[in-house]
Amino acid sequence: MASSGNHRHSPFESLKELKALLDNALEEARSRKRKDDEKGGEVEGPSVLASAYDRLRLWAFPNDRADWAALDRARAHRERMDKRHAESLFALLGRWEFLGPRAFDTGGGHYTSGRVNDIAIDPRDSQTIYAGAAGGGVWKTIDNGITWKPLSDTWPMMEISSVAIDPTNSSVIYAGTGDFDDWGQHHFGVMKSTDGGVTFSLLPVGEAAQVSITGIVVDPDNPLIVTICGGHGGVAGRVWRSTDGGSTWARASSITADWMKLVISKADGGGVRAMYVVGWSDDFRTGVSYRSLDRGATWHLIKPPFVADQSELSVAASPLTPEVVYVAGSVDRKVFKSFDHGDTWNDVTHDLRQDDFEWNQSWYDFDLACGAIGTDSAPRDILYIGLKHLSSWDSSGITWKELPHGHDDLHVLAIDPTRPGRGVLIGNDGGVYEQERVAHGWDLSSRNATLGVTQCYRGDASPFDARICIAGTQDNAVASSQTDLRAWGQLFPPSGGDAIAALVNPANQKIQFIEAGVAFHGIARTADQWKTSKEITPSTPGDVLDAFSMPMAMDAGGTRLYWASDYLWVRDEASGVWAGRLGAQQLAGTGNGVRSLAVAESDPLRVYTGSTDGQIWMADGPGFVWKRIDESLPKTVISAIAVHPRNKNDILVAIGGTGTGHVFHCADTTATPPVWDDVSAGGVLPDLPAVGVVRDSVFPDSRFYAALDVGVFYTEDAGKHWTDITVPLGLPNVQLQDLRLAGNIVYAFTYGRGAWWLNPTGQP
Q1: Fewest beta carbons less than 10 Å away: which of 185, 241, 256, 309?
Q2: CA-to-CA separations, 308 to 286, 331, 335, 377, 752, in angstroms, rounded
Q3: Does 47 score more than 90 pLDDT?
């Protein structure tokens, strides 16, 4: 994501700068825990930074900054690949099937899912709702969230920041791509549907395709006028406008900013509507608010009376009074109300919660929405603010009320335009929830039973029972299916929060392991499928506990649990005793850790490690004398290692970066020096980081699967030719995180569409 134009500099663009930011955030979180154990564990801020750092690290080779333009090249490459051959593989491989999490129960039927960035409610039928997921695309329900249907699985990418419905024609839908809250990855413009989401087409938005689209307003009086805004991208964020329903676009303003939100007011008696846009301006070095009174054609600065420069802002317009607008700022932690389109302001912060825990990541979770209470003689606004939690304020009083919200980290609050007093729909890190006003007060309900947008990191499954599948997730701990893939549960590793890895003992499926990472590392073990469990975290003074590395692996007999920091550790399952720093060999460079770990199926003491800085080491136990074997390979993240099941000296590795091959094969790791063959077929695979590689258990010499950021690819001839088996075999175009083999079933863990399997054997 190369920086250009006069827009806010993002530390997420530089690996070095982001690492420094992450280190500071991790130390702050650990210090806080040492002092008062606030919240009992991990805070979300470091998790988000760690996830961003991990992703950028995969991309940054050979430079400090990632080549995000490689995404466009790789997508075009993928589309040029032979789809006919992919379809012919159906008889051999079957089709990808969604496993879950579904009906993901976090307690008492309180279902969760994954991060939702925006929600749009049909103004003619409030049972029809569209949700835009951070990594899972656009979804639609016509029964108020009882059942959801994905609409965008074949889109080039699936990150969504905004969704809008034409208020005069509910069949017309707009979706703005990119994930602004994760600093604007995977954006490619605006998609439009004219048939209620059955089909979509890409609009020619020009430079706006290079930013995450955070706001879309369709003019209620003239739906041919569409205004959009965005930021966090390869060009400066702006406000753009179309007067022909999206066929052509022009800049509506010369102002550049990372625009966070765009809203439109109710019409006044003369038919005038105010539009408001807020965001961070590099010119002013603060958050700014602008207003248009001519349907987005021209914009003028308005100045709420904040004392300090604001990093983030949010805005909401009253559904009752055309002139009333609200603005909140993250630094002052104030909310202001204007009765005159923003010319003058009143402070309505009152007793709103002010603590650091609530506000310290408003760059990630922050929204305002305004409903109305009109059931008595004095209709009034009800204002909602979403940060980590949800609070509401009745404009007739001076008290803010904290309300249940289903899951922390609120990204969007949506009001039913036909029933603004009903309550609020919430999009957060757990999906979609509704907080509804009822006779006795408030009633919270989940809308996530069939919304499959969980963001998984690493997972595993049992080779004996395909119903047993577990995965670490973003802010939802561990998703666990132990007996029924139709009903998943939640497991909490030590320290909670994000769970990075999960492992099933390959010889005894009742024994399983889950791992937390990021700020507070911890491993938990069960011997009875989580009826009981205990923490088994080793004491690792002085080791590098990388936020998203620290992999686990077991030997085929299930007798040893291997785990890695920047050294290798092993736990004897019989005694429960850890042995640390095997061979006294550091396996990664300064500040780096081991990212991938593999044990030979044919020898429980042959171990391979791959580091975040490109080191590959091999050792044999019990003495563990190490040999480094990465000579001639690119020095970037070694994301996965696959050992031949019958030949411990034959391995495949998956690596990150761009401008290089991404799957390499070594037929004899004992050779001096080892010889590596690029089996990416000299560019036959798209040039994007590989995050996983597995070998077919029946034909391990020739049949490989590789997971890249743009899909899963398959070769039948040891890498001479590769076939895209993503959409052609039913897997959405979603970001991949991990690829695993259990038995002969291939499991794909995705960052936005949960877990999937490909079942070549056809076993039930």
Answers
A1: 309
A2: 9, 7, 13, 39, 37
A3: no
Helix, coil or strand: residue 6? coil
Task: List pLDDT tens digits, range 359-415.
Answer: 988 999 999 999 998 756 688 999 999 999 999 999 999 999 999 999 999 999 999
Instruction: With beta carbons less than 8 A apart as the criterion, state whether 656 and 58 touch.
Output: yes
Q: Which residue has the higher pLDDT, 301 or 45?
A: 301
Find the CATH number of the domain harbouring 574: 2.130.10.10
Predicted confidence at residue 45, as pLDDT, reads 66
Q: How far apart are CA 734 and CA 754, in angstroms?
A: 10
Sign of CA dihedral 216, 217, 223, 224: negative
- Burial class of residue 684 (count of CB atoms within 10 Å of its CB; 0-12, 13-18, 19+): middle
What 8-state DSSP symbol labels residue 193?
E
What is the per-residue pLDDT for 520? 77
Q: At what angle do helices 44-59 and 15-36 cross, to 10 degrees?
A: 160
3-state helix/strand/coil string of 411-429? EEEECCCCCCCCEEEEEEC
CB 223 within 8 A of CB 171: no
Burial of 556 (0-12, 13-18, 19+ CB in 10 A): middle
430/746 Cα distance (integer angstroms): 27
Range list of β-strands (E), 387-468: 390-394, 400-403, 410-414, 423-428, 431-438, 441-446, 456-461
DSSP string, 298-318: S-EEE----SSPPS-EEEEE-
pLDDT at 36: 52
Give me the number of domains the chain comprises.
2
Query: pLDDT tens-digit profile of 501-520?
Result: 999 999 999 999 999 887 77
Domain annotation covers residue 46: no
* pLDDT given for residue 704 in this prediction: 97
| pLDDT exceeds cutoff 70 at 10 | no
Q: Helical H runs in 37-81?
A: 44-59, 69-80
As beta bridge partners, residue 314 has 328
Q: What is the DSSP letter of 185?
A: B
Taking a C-beta distance cutoff of 8 angstroms, is the pair 162, 213 a contact? yes
Give, in degrees to the nearest 5, the angle at Cα 199 between 194 and 202: 80
Strands (E), 235-342: 239-242, 250-251, 258-264, 275-281, 286-292, 300-302, 313-317, 325-329, 334-338
Determine the structural domain holding residue 208 and report its residue range.
Answer: 102-446
Question: Can you tell me the mean pLDDT for 298-304?
Answer: 96
In sequence order, the 6+-apart residues with CB closer than 8 A to the CB of 551 are: 458, 501, 563, 564, 594, 595, 596, 597
Same domain? 429 vs 566: no
CA-CA distance, 92 to 714, in Å (whole number)?
Answer: 12
Dist. CA 95–CA 113, nearest whole Å: 23
Residue 53 in any domain: the answer is no
- What does the alpha-carbon distance between residue 343 and residue 330 come to, in Å, rounded to a whole number? 21
- Run of H or E residues at 7: none
Sheet bearing 390-394, strands edge to edge: 367-373, 380-386, 390-394, 400-403
pLDDT score, position 8? 45
- Asked if residue 608 belongs to a domain, the reply is yes
At residue 761, the pLDDT reads 65
pLDDT for the residue 485: 93
Query: In sequence order, what DSSP letters do the residues of 197-240 get, joined into one string?
Result: TSS-EE---GGGGGSEEEEEEE-SS-TT-EEEEEESSSS---EE
Lowest-confidence region among 40-44, 144-148, 347-351, 702-706? 40-44
pLDDT grade for 43, boundaries at 50, 70 and 90:
low
Last residue of a domain, one of 388, 419, 446: 446
Per-residue b/e over 739-759, b at no fewer than 16 CB within 10 Å?
A: bbbbbbbbbbbbbbbbbbbbb
Average pLDDT in the chain: 92
| Closest among 417, 405, 428 to 121, alpha carbons compared | 417
Q: Is 445 exposed, middle or buried (0-12, 13-18, 19+ CB in 10 A)?
A: middle
**For residue 34, is it within any domain?**
no
Looking at residue 414, its pLDDT comes to: 98
